[in-house]
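User: Can you recover a sequence for this backbone? Please restate the input before giving your answer.

Assistant: Of course. Working from this structure:
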């Protein structure tokens, strides 16, 4: 938790409480359904919560912005981002029911009213969104194909509407295959921990 406050000291008392509650809640759920790798569970705040919040260092979402998390797993990056931006609306989509059950349980336990968990394949979603966020779900060309027509043009944050994706390693070839222009933000610009050494947020505008 100290790690989160190190980079986000402006959290309200409620946000601090919600962030703090995540460890116990995920531990409880993880004992039933393995949604967070057991080998790095002790590092939940570093590897999952803070990693998710790297998106917030690249783009701040406006009140009313609609954000879709594709392949949300146990709720990363959508749960930490929904805590940080209580005025934005988040949809967490995953095709695996037990993962959505975890997100529902966590959101309900911490009173997260701006997050809607949805058990479905993203290709079947009919709604449109301002931003799509995700964390290493699939190869970028495939991902862009899934979500591009779900993004509304405009600007509901500090960057024009588009895709914000958490990814690691050498991305040049993969991003080139999407036919889009990308901005690459190295996470070590924001967070000094060694874990982030090769990690990036990649962004493209609609």
């Amino acid at each position: 938790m100290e790690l989160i406050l190190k980079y986000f000291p402006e959290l309200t008392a409620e946000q601090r409480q919600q962030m703090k509650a995540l460890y116990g809640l995920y531990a409880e759920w993880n004992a039933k359904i393995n949604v967070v790798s057991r080998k790095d569970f002790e590092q939940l705040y570093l590897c999952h919560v803070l990693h998710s919040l790297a998106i917030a260092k690249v783009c701040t979402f406006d009140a009313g912005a609609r954000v879709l998390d594709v392949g949300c797993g146990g709720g990363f990056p959508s749960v930490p981002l929904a805590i940080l931006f209580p005025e934005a609306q988040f949809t967490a989509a995953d095709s695996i029911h037990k993962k959505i059950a975890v997100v529902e349980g966590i959101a309900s336990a911490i009173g997260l009213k701006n997050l809607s968990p949805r058990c479905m394949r993203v290709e079947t979603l009919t709604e449109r969104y301002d931003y799509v966020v995700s964390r290493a779900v699939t190869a970028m060309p495939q991902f862009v194909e899934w979500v591009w027509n779900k993004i509304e043009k405009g600007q509901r944050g500090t960057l024009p509407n588009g895709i914000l994706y958490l990814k690691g390693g050498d991305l040049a070839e993969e991003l080139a295959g999407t036919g889009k222009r990308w901005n690459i933000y190295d996470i070590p610009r924001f967070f000094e921990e060694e874990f982030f050494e090769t990690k990036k947020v990649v962004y493209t505008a609609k």
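That completes the design. The first helix runs from residue 2 to 7.
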